[in-house]
Amino acid sequence: MAARAKRPRPEEDIWDHCALLEAKLMEAQSYMMTLAKDNERLHVLLRKYMEKDDQLHSMSQMSNASGDVAATLGLGHDMDPGTSQMSQLTELSEPGEEAQLSSVYEFIDSVKALKKGSPSKSKAQIPPPAPLRPERIPTGIGVMIVDPESHPGCVLVGRRRGSHGAGKYALPGGHLEKHESWRTCATRELKEETDLEIPEDSMSFVWVDNSDMPEEAKHYTTIFLLAPLPEGSSPPQNMEPNKCDGWEWISWIDLQKRAAAEPTSLFIPLLNCLTKGCDPFNVPGGKFSSDAL
Asked: Where is this region: Disordered (predicted)?
């Protein structure tokens, strides 16, 4: 049975995503400015510290000069203890030269330049996203299995469950996979769903339908193939009970009557076949070459 097709992200979701990214960018810029302000404060403190160190260094030189004078005069033991402590403090205070702080200053200057040259953008200034590419229509394969010997005038149908079209009668079939031929897809789906094995070369083209299902947000191009059941085949089995209630043989005439009386009981692709003139028991040939199959 057909799997649910993935829908593209709506344009509104893209705008919401852009707004979220813009908010995160503004938050990052605010954080950077906070760091810059903190570094500016550090810059001022370092400047004051260096000025204080220069003062201490000058006092140390004065202290050394005083010590020399005191030694000359023989007063070395009577010096002010405060002056000696100041000299020791000066020896311990080595903040580094201006070149060691250049990385801090360069960072602050770069943040200031960034703030001046990169104003925040409003939503109106954000360029609109590129237009969404229209969703491509997937291809489905429907197989009309016929058994002229045991079930003349009938096709095999089953009631869908667990996916779109649940509760409606449909033919065996499914999605055409990449690089598959129509017949290869039909053979694979029949084996997966009914455990029937029908030779590919016995299958023929019957009908193509533009299966639009807006109420279920689905749209397919459905290719229908006729597949005669080989003699001696085992009865069809319900291999996917989570997708189908079971298989049964129903005459094409009865299905046409059901299409007229209870159209909602039939899956759209099959309903279109029944109401638009398809007849698997009277198929005009020559419309498609065997290569298309």
From this structure: 116-137
